[in-house]
Amino acid sequence: MIEPLFPIPETLRSRYTKLRIVLWLLIVSSGGALLFSFLFPTIDTTFDFRNPRSSKNTITDPRSPEGAPRLNGKVEASGTLIAHTSVLGDFSRGTVSLRLEKQSAVPEYLAISLRRTYRAALFPIGPALDRLPASEDIVRSGSEYYLVQNGAFHRFVSEAAFRSRFPESAAREAGPDELNRLPLAEDFVGFRVGSLLSFADGVFVVTSETEIRPIGSAEIFLALGYRFENVLPVSEEDIGIYERGRIFLLGLPHPDGTLLLDTDTDVLYVVEGNQRRPVSHADVRRFLEARQTPITFSSSEAERTSACTAHSGWRSRLLSCSLSLDDLRSISAPDYELTLSSPTAIDINTLSLSLETRPDERNMRVLLAKVKQRILNRFGLTTP
Amino acid sequence: MLVLPASWLENSRKNGRLAIGLNLLFETLIAGWVGFFGLYTLEVLLPTFITSRLSLPAFFVVLVGGSALLSLLAEHSPARSVHFRSAGRVLIALVLLWSFALVALSLYRFPFWSIPLQIGGFAAIVFLFFRWQKENSDTA
Fold first, then answer.
1. Beta-carbon contacts of residue B121 (< 8 Å; ≥ 6 apart)
2. Res B91 pLDDT > 90
3. Distance (Å, rounded) from C-alpha A190 to C-alpha B29?
4. Which of residues 32-71 of B touch A (CB under 8 A)?
5. Which of A284, A260, A269 is nearest to A125 (CA)?
6. DSSP assignment letter at B88
7. Model pTM score
8. Percent of chain B beyond pLDDT 90?
9. Which residues pair with A144 in a beta bridge?
10. What is the pLDDT of residue B49?
């Protein structure tokens, strides 16, 4: 123990000792609380309705059930606001808080619910997909494949690009001098939209016929339900036909072309234009599943919610409530859909959701493994 | 300059409460500084690991403020001359080792030729600071 630096009168020694014990208990408990918050962090996500375009908003896409944006924070009487957030982690509790504008009426209560599933799994169901898109005339000459379209030959950038879109039987051998019959278009046909490509150290997802986007990290890649065995290693020429879009991070729905499999109904969907198109043709399904393992979700689990009722506390314009996330633990998707309904018209200033990491050994090991990995990366060492 | 009621300070000094407060503040600061350097070392090792959860600059300002308060109040304490026990060799060795490790970590992956330049530049600044301090004290 540290001896007193400033002499203490003998009569106050006992009091000083007691105060010292209290002080060190406080210091140790503060240190413990700090360590606990490092090991089991609380992740805060927010949406500022006064700055709806701010990049700091980690809650996204506030809207009505019909899909109309609610970027100004106004919710009419008996109205509902839906928003999303995406976070990685194993959480035990969530706390939803709303700060209302000064002129807003304060409702007696707010009904709040949270569900967890991939955003794309909540897209409305679109028309069935009963054939592969653009199954026009395809000719093969040696190892090169051409799509005959609009009076020209469009060369597939590689055999792998052709195989990502069509079965081998879709191409016919080019006749003598057939390739001289039509002009060769300048553009190339690339990979099926939704394909995963790797080049150098990056993994990219094909988001359109002309764009690829790098996936932010291996952690995000896995959290989105993708599998590394579905990634096609490609050449510089293959990747060179695409423009590189913005980095693909959490919070975005899966891009077009993604395969989603509902494990409850065994229906395979293809994401297209913010819709889920069920694949109704067995051959098409077999072909797609052979190319890419679908991302699985459960429609019944997607309907499972955790709910609470928010009331205003001592600060009347701040309403909050806390909900258990135990029922949503078995769902692996990183996306959460937050729904709030108000009996009276309100004007929200800020919406926030805080997620508390479950304090268990598994999460502690996950964090320590990440720390170890970061230290090894920092010094250019690899994990054994 | 800290302005506290003179009578309050005088009473606290006489009844010994000031000494208790100063000792408790001193121990809090010791724990705070040790904690700060521990967290700072972690931050050097794992950039953003600490600062994404805790503001180290704010923590530093609080510690500097606390240290300044201790220094000002100590002028009113009954023990005008404070004798610090000489730090043990082991403690000095530990501090030097820690400083060396921190500098080595900070300079990791810097171009080899720039390392003596940076260390030399830092040493020159320290030398100029002490010379300026000496000149000031000689003038006074």
1. none
2. no
3. 64
4. 35, 45-46, 49, 53-54
5. A269
6. P
7. 0.77
8. 26
9. A141
10. 85
Half-sphere exposure of A265 (CA within 13 A, CB side): 13
| B105 in contact with chain A, both atoms CB, cutoff 8 A | no
Predicted local confidence at residue A11, as pLDDT: 87
User: A117 with A263: CB under 8 angstroms?
Assistant: no
A259-262 and A295-297 beta bridge pairing: parallel
The per-residue pLDDT for range B24-58, each reduced to its tens digit, is 999 999 999 999 999 998 888 888 888 888 899 99
Residue A135 has pLDDT above 60, yes or no: no
Rounded to whole angstroms, the Cα distance separating A308 from A297 reads 25
Give, in order, the Cα–Cα distances in Å from A316 to each of A74, A105, A323: 18, 10, 20
With CB atoms and an 8 Å threshold, state whether B19 touches A9.
Answer: yes
Using alpha carbons, select from A118, A93, A98 the residue that is nearest to residue A41: A93
Q: Per the CB < 8 Å rule, is A378 touching B45?
A: yes
Determine the longest span between alpha carbons in chain A, in angstroms: 112
First-to-last CA distance in chain B? 21
- Return all residues near A106 (Cβ < 8 A) that are at least 6 apart: A100, A312, A316, A317, A319, A346
CA distances from A35 to A32, A38, A270, B48, B50 (A): 5, 5, 45, 16, 11
User: Which residues have a Cβ under 8 Å from the Cβ of A293 and sit 6 or more positions away?
Assistant: A227, A229, A230, A259
The 3-state DSSP class for residue B110 equals coil
Phi/psi for A331 (5° steps) reads: -85, 130
pLDDT of residue A384: 45
Per the CB < 8 A criterion, the answer to whether A268 and A278 are in contact is: yes
From chain A residues 138-197, the ones with a CB under 8 A of any chain B CB are none
Tell if the CB–CB gap between B82 and A379 is shorter than 8 Å: no
Cα-flanking dihedrals φ and ψ of residue B53, to 5°? -115, -30
In angstroms, the Cα distances linking B96 to B20, B86, B100, B120 are: 32, 16, 6, 18
- Number of CB atoms found within 10 A of residue A118's CB: 25
Contacts of B78 in chain A (CB under 8 A): 6-7
Positive/negative CA dihedral, B32, B36, B42, B46: positive
Mean pLDDT of A99-110: 91
Query: Which of left, alpha, beta for A339 (phi over 0: left; psi -120 to 50: alpha)?
Result: beta
The answer to ipTM > 0.90 is: no
**Mean pLDDT computed over B128-134:** 88
Backbone angles phi, psi at A36, to 5 degrees: -60, -40
Binned at pLDDT 50, 70 and 90, residue A382 comes out as: low
